[in-house]
Amino acid sequence: MTISRRGLLGASAALGLLSACGSNTGRDDGGSGDGPKLSQWYHQYGEQGTEQAVKKYAAAYKKANVTVQWRPGNYDEQTAAALLTDSGPDVFEANGPSLDQIQGKQVADLTELFDGVKDDFNPAVLAPKTYDGRIWGIPQVIDMQMLYYRKSLLADAGVQPPKTLDELVDAAKKLTTKKTKGLFLGNDGGAGVLGGTPLHAAGLELVTADGKVGFDDPAAARALGKIHQLYADKSLLLGAPADWSDPSAFVQGLTAMQWSGLWALPTVQKELGDDFGVLPFPKDGAAGKPSVPVGAYAAAVSTRSKHQQAGKDFLKWLWIDSTERQEDFALAYGFHIPARISLAKKAEKLRKGAAADAVRYTTEYGHAEPLLWTPASRSAYQDALSRIIKDGANPDDELKKVVRKVSAELGRVKKTS
Amino acid sequence: MTTAARDDRQATGRRKLWGHQNRTLWFWVFVGPFVLGLGIFTYIPLGWSVYLSFFDAHNTVTPSDFVGFGNYTAMLQNEAFTDSLWTFLVFSLFIVPATYALSLALALMVHRQRRAQAFFRSVFFLPAACSYVVAALIWKMSIFNGVRFGLANTVLGWFGGDQIAWLSTTDPPWYWAVIVTVRLWLQAGFYMVLFLAGLQRISPTLYEAAAVDGARPGWQVFRHITFPQLKATSVAVVLLLVINAFQAFDEFYNLLSDSRGYPPYARPPLVYLYYTALGQGQNLGLGSAGAVLLALIIAVVTVGQAKWFGLGKKEAE
Fold first, then answer.
1. What do you get for the CA distance between the two ends of chain A, in Å?
2. Stretches in chain B below the pLDDT threshold 50
3. Please, what is the average pLDDT of chain B?
């Protein structure tokens, strides 16, 4: 069959029209409510059933027609870019929201939704959603990170679960054999995942309560130097097929200890039974204390949405009023701590064994990245940490550069506010 | 009316409709959509990016705080950006000659092949059809992962060697071996085809004349006949290789990044600018200034290279 030029032009025009129809903003397809059309974005969770669950919640809401978009890939970058345009979501999960998003008026003020329930939200994760006394996102669930260790391997090597950073360095070295490394902190040696954790372990902070650099102190260099010691001793597992967030390296016996998240607990339990324990990141120095990083995705409303009030009403219904759905989302599919204190307390799955330990560590030692810790500060610190760990760069010199950069960033964000 | 006369009348009618009298209209019908697309998706964003580079544009594309050349100064004083330019320089200094030599060697080998030439041509060209992302992930997860069951480490194990964390070790910088081999595998076949086309254009009489003059086949013929005759192809290949090296992103990003970011080593300019402007940083003013600086560097290098090779000189004369 031959196609005439006129036919080809006609077909192209038709295809053009069709593709224009397909430009999907997520606002016009599906949903079951009767009110305004709302688009809701989630990042792709690894746990089976989560996507169906959030679609079920959206379908149950009758005052708006909510369409869920499940977005794989670099979600934070996707939302950051989408918020610059009119084709972004109405309501969305935010790994934040970040200070620049708040100061740039990209997210709506949600303070009024917390009337009467504010004290029931875990303060560790509510604080980074609060700026200028207003709340800009509703914490959905709490994720925390901790140290998993294999009891039998520690017993074989005659090693006690480490309580200090020095003991961790020593234990990792003793546990390293031809086939098994002592510790896995991620394929980058810990520069990415540890963040401020070693600083907290040394009794310091990323940013102080009065908005100043919190690690301009010799104790910071001392703690980071010990992370380099782990690398120099060849105690760290590097280049594993799955990174720190996945417990594969731990359950496959590639490492005796691994830094990972609470979400990995069901898999570790299934594979290893009782042959494992969990610990916070061990303290360093006399002023130090154990350290547990916590974080929470928050539900936020885009200020570019044409239906801001409808979006707020929906989020209030889902993340403030529907406590049974919040518990379902936190514990029925994956393994997270509900952001509401009352729900976390009554959750049966969190009451015993390693899960109970994890909840206790979160309460006693939990710390979240402060809102003033901007992406520019984070990447400068991570670069320095990578150079300290892998290149053996002088921690004092590297930290001095980071302190200068972070001070400048803090100055910038204060000027903006 | 005869068939010929009817055909003639139909042809005249078609000429009236499609013919010379309305060439401009038809030119724009065919070219217009592409010009429009180029304008909307390339030139307007390009112009807007230059505009943004003079503003403090955090999380906005319609900024209001004019900062003049502030973003440019900040970017040039930024150690991470200047380091990324060095990374590019190291990468291109290795990858350009290595790909050039390998693709030329493959082309010479395949060109001399008397049997199954099409088969070998296809075998070497096929990797060019593979996505950079897919190849990078295969390299990272299967061949060069750092544990004992990675292919490279298994082979090392046969000879009693220790496991190497290929992408996580900076001393020695084994990650370059991974980055360079994946790109060589992906692109050598494409440039081989260009060289093959160049080789086929060399007149056999030149080789016959060389033989008559007593030139020894092999290195002497290659040096005095083949290589000089490939000059035009070589210039094009080197130009493309340098531009491609500048555009390096996919394999670097997929080999070395994780959910928490990207290590400071082996971070080419595009990866750095991606994190500055499009990542969570969302500093679109600073990122745009970096993009403009990078575009200027590419332009200067390309023009300098073209001048050095005397590109277009012959045509002008």
1. 67
2. 316-317
3. 89
A4, A5, A7, B14 from A1: Cα distances, Å: 10, 13, 12, 21
C-alpha span between A99 and A413 (Å, rounded)? 8
Q: Which residues of A touch B265 (CB under 8 A)?
A: 386, 390
Is residue A412 classed exposed, middle or buried when 0-12, 13-18 and 19+ CB atoms within 10 A define those classes? middle
The H or E element spanning position A327 is helix A323-331
State the pairing for strand pair A337-338/A141-149: antiparallel
Asked if the C-beta of B71 comes within 8 angstroms of chain A's C-beta atoms, the answer is: no
ipTM: 0.81
**A118: which DSSP letter?**
G
In one-letter notation, the amino acid at residue A88 is G
Cα A111 off chain centre by: 22
pTM (predicted TM-score): 0.85
The rounded Cα A82 to chain-centroid distance in angstroms is 20
What residues in B contact A378, CB-CB < 8 Å? 261
Residue-wise pLDDT for A43-52, tens only, equals 998 888 999 9
CB B252 within 8 A of CB B267: yes
Give the tens place of pLDDT for each residue, A164-177. 999 999 999 999 99
Of A54, A56, A146, nearest to A91 by C-alpha is A54
pLDDT in tens, B239-270: 899 888 988 999 999 999 987 889 999 999 99
Among A179, A193, A375, the residue with its CB nearest the CB of B280 is A375
CA distance B277 to B286: 7
Domains of chain A by start residue, with CATH? 5-140+296-339 (3.40.190.10), 145-291+372-416 (3.40.190.10)
Q: Give how far Cα A406 sits from Cα of A147, A215, A258, A403, B213, Å.
A: 28, 10, 30, 5, 72
Kindly provide the residue ranges of all beta strands, DSSP E only, lying in B16-131, ordered along the sequence.
55-56, 65-66
